[in-house]
Each structure stands twice: as C-alpha cells, then as structure tokens.
Amino acid sequence: MSTEIENRVSAHYRKSGLAEVVLDGLAAAGANLNALTLEDLAPVDEFHTAGRITTLKALELMPLEAGMHVLDAGCGLGGTARCLAVEHGCRVMGLDLTEEFIEVARLLTQRMQLSAVCEFCQGSATAMPFDDEMFDAAVTFHVAMNIAQRAKLYGELARVLRPDSALCVFDVMKGPGAGMRYPVPWAETEATSFLRSRDETADLLEQAGFTVIAEKNLRQFAIDYFREAFAKAEKSDAPPPLGLHLLTGDNAADKFANYAQALQAHQIEPVIMMATLT
Prior knowledge:
Mean pLDDT: 96
CATH architecture: 3-Layer(aba) Sandwich
Structural class: alpha/beta
Number of strands: 7
C-alpha cells in the first residue's frame, strides 16, 4: 500500500482524544474502570460487523491452544486480541496502522492487567515489523477492505506464520450486485475502499500459500443484525454511551445505513474464512 493511501486510511480512523472518549463512555455505561471485562468493552473495542458476536463465530473455526503466539493484524482497539488472551490463553501481538488505536489498545489492556500477554505495535500490514515464522496463528478482521495491495497483505501473513499455521480472515467482500454508496464504516469514499469478492479472496490466499478449509457467509445474519439494531435505535432518544459510533464520527448513522443498504442489494457480504498455511 502506498504511503499516500495509508495516510488517508489512518486519517479516516484517527480520532482526537479517543482514549478519553472511550473511558468516559465506559464510565457512563457503568463499567468499573479499574476492573474492566471483555463484556464491558465489547460495544466499542471489536470494530467489525456485529462485534463480539462474530468474533466468537470466527474464533470457533480456529484450532487454538493455550500458549500459542497469535498475530492480530489490524487489531484496532485490541478487543479480539484480549479475547484470544482471556478465553483461549494465547499470547497476542496486535498490529494496527492507526497510532491512536494502538494507544487505546495498550491503555485498555493495562486496565485489564493483560499487558504481559497482549502487546501492540503501530505499523503496516503490508510491511510487518516481525521476523519470519514468528507466530503460531493469525487473525485479520475487517482490515483488507482498506488494502489495495491485497497480495502483499497475504504474502506478509504467510511470511510471519510458521508452517501449518491457521489464519482466520473476516472481511466485507464484494457481492454480485453492482455499485456502492459511501460513506461506510471503513471508508468515506471509494478512494480508500478496495473490496474483493469471495472467490478473488480465496484465490489470493491460495497464491500466498494458504488453503481455505472452512468459511461462513454472514450476509443474512448481518442483515438481521442491522434490522434489529436500527429498530432498537429508533426507540431511543440518544445513542448509547458506548458503541462504535464513538469511532465512526458524526456521520456514523449514514455509514451504517449505507452498509445495511449494500447488504440488502447484495453489493457486499461479510465472510469469514479459515485457512491453513501449506
């Protein structure tokens, strides 16, 4: 990915004073800031379709074992990384392009007393600052939509994984329907949105040395999820104190409405793929 595109992508996610905003939201939601739990953080720290619900759907496909060293490429605020540590006993390295996300990930991890098993660093997923064959498994959730050089992403994942390692990909993929309305949660315009179809994604993974062995298409699930979320929002006078709207800005409603519309038109489909490095 070019530096110019990466700068645009990072700017899209960058939020001034994000740590304070998240902590204020947690406090308003009634969380104990000195004893945070995965459930406390779930509304905001798993920045992908349906959040923690789909995190669990994805991770159940993986052959995870306690003590594994797992990479979370595009970790955001670290929700999936902390889930891997708490619920599966893994050591996790989170990588994200956006410095503010890394700062908040470290802060929340410290408050959960997980810093010994969850580390975070800022960097590009197409030029990872890691040694070859460093990890036992990897996850990358809702990251590739912002990456034009998709082959480079999967090549880097193959490089840093040990042979026979598992990789779980969860991305919004291009559907058969034409067109797309912006903004959406991952991009303000099509200039930083690089969707690939399910078949294109599988081909690129195979070219990098992976074999797709399991997958779940969550399009209908996502349609139902957004229908319920919008119905709940209509009954409320204001958004909840904690949620993804804290990350998606003033036009959050437009972004999620456009996402839901694109699902209905089958312009996109969220797909989980589990692959192994051969």
